[in-house]
């Protein structure tokens, strides 16, 4: 059954469907902005309750990074964030400062979506994906593990995370053409890269930095990490495939069904072979432009470590060149760009708003205090319980320091010697950091990458949380089990 015929079933939902919608409405998760604003307010209150404190930072000779000197924590005079002020930063300037701090990823979201919409308006992508969907009409499920594996290797090898955002529009279009939904399309890309990043046995930004700071040989203990990566990959693939199968059989089960209805009304794409026209010469030219662009993008990321600036430039080239090849006028091209950027305003602003949480905590100087308190509690407990508590501390710390290398530089100088004192090996300490840092990046609103994924796929944060929560429980359980096993085998 095609995605079009599935979506047309909405009119036959009857009383049962209405009742289901009413039942869900009772337990509706608050709006994304409400959730983030609530966290900002809690952080604001925390600056008045939690004593301010700081660690001194010194340069690590192994990694070259500024790290915490673990014995230097001192309490300082409280600097609570003001509710309002005419002359100083206050609660009402948080959004502006959050947007300033995340301007790179915010503009990346706007520009990539704008330029991608220029490409999509040529019709070449829809026609090409429709043909691919027809070829895989009876085995579309096979594409899920394949696509996820490709992106997971990027996560393993180069710590791919935000770089994969550029591929989300294609993933969403492909998923829809195969009869799935935007959630499947985004998850294939985001969680594919995520599994690789989390389980990244050679991830230079997490494992590499943590090993260097902990004084361990870089990428040592790889065998155990590879085994956990495989478990994570299989569990994630099965989770997404199970959901995709439900959506394929019954589109009402889609968490983003309203989004799919809206998009279907705006699109004429069909997977029915009788309705798929042959690609025109101009459309073939557009696909060639895209092929060249994505090959260049991939090479640049892998070989030269390209960041958002270079990625945007490649999308700019693809958008302008595609419009030219397709014969679209400059005025229409500009309007297509604006339409694409306009569609992600909600999500892009959420990135800056979420960063406001960190702005408040930094202004109040309470991040180091929280870390000091948590680490001191671990030292009083022995054995495997301490190892698990280290894992929990890293999970909590990730809310305040979503950068993997930043979290390593902040926590490893404390956790590594603490592990020596209580009998937890440094490899296990690094493992606790690796998984504690990684998992919650895919539910943490302060993680700019996640909010950009959601913005580009137009999935609200509250719907994402509803969908990903069970998987998050699976991931966290796998991480805990891995740490317990590592402790008992003397890893």
Describe the structure.
It is a single chain. The protein has 491 residues and is mainly alpha-helical. It has one domain (3-488). Helices cover 69% and strands 2% of the residues. The protein is built from 22 helices and four strands. It has helices at residues 3-7, 14-26, 32-49, 94-101, 103-120, 124-135, 143-158, 168-177, 182-198, 204-214, 222-249, 257-266, 281-304, 308-326, 330-342, 345-363, 367-378, 383-400, 404-422, 426-438, 448-457, 461-488, and strands at residues 53-54, 57-59, 66-68, 74-75. The protein has a two-stranded antiparallel sheet. Strands 2-3 form a two-stranded antiparallel sheet. A hairpin with a 6-residue loop joins β2 (57-59) and β3 (66-68). α8 (168-177) packs across α9 (182-198), α9 (182-198) packs antiparallel against α21 (448-457) and α17 (367-378) packs antiparallel against α18. The longest helix is centred in the middle third of the chain and has 28 residues, at 222-249. The chain crosses the membrane at residues 33-55, 94-119, 140-158, 164-184, 191-214, 226-244, 286-306, 312-331, 343-361, 381-401, 467-489. InterPro entries: C4_dicarb_anaerob_car-like, DASS-Related_Transporters. Keywords: Cell membrane, Membrane, Transmembrane, Transmembrane helix. It is found in: Cell membrane.
Q: Strand order of the main beta sheet, please?
A: 1-4
Proportion in helices = 55-70%
Main sheet record:
2 strands, antiparallel
Rg to the nearest angstrom?
Answer: 24 Å
Separation of termini? Answer: 50 Å
SSE string, helices as H and strands as E? HHHEEEEHHHHHHHHHHHHHHHHHHH
Mean pLDDT: 84
Strand tally:
4
